[in-house]
Amino acid sequence: MVPLNIQVMVDKESQIYMPPTWKHYMNVEYIQIDFTGLYKDEDIIKCVADAVEMGLQRSDKSVRALVYLKNSKTSPNAIRSIKKLGKLVQPKLKKSALVGSVGIVSLLMKIYISYTGSKIKFFTDKEAAIKYLAND
Q1: pTM of the model
Q2: SS3 content of the chain, % helix, strand, coil (to 5)
Q3: Distance (Å, whole) CA 52 – CA 86
């Protein structure tokens, strides 16, 4: 299934939800999951659910994912849902990278990693994260 190009308007604090997309770098395909400016739990959960659905469509452990978390917030309640979704897709993930996790979001990501067994690597630079995903 191709992700729908649906844009949902949210309050002044939150940006427009943009679904995850497949991207390519050096003949390597990865899912870009961009949470930039998202603050509403329902937007963040939808973004994760859409990415998980994309990953589950793969028949093998070939999915690479780039998670971009600049200027976003979430709550412990949202993390509960995200953990369950993340655990579903772990068998399909080959590599994953996270850019921009700071503050409480960083702590929540550590809880996510502990629950799902994710091997996600943390980066401060988006280009370095993409190069990591492309390197076998």
Answers
A1: 0.82
A2: 40, 20, 40
A3: 7
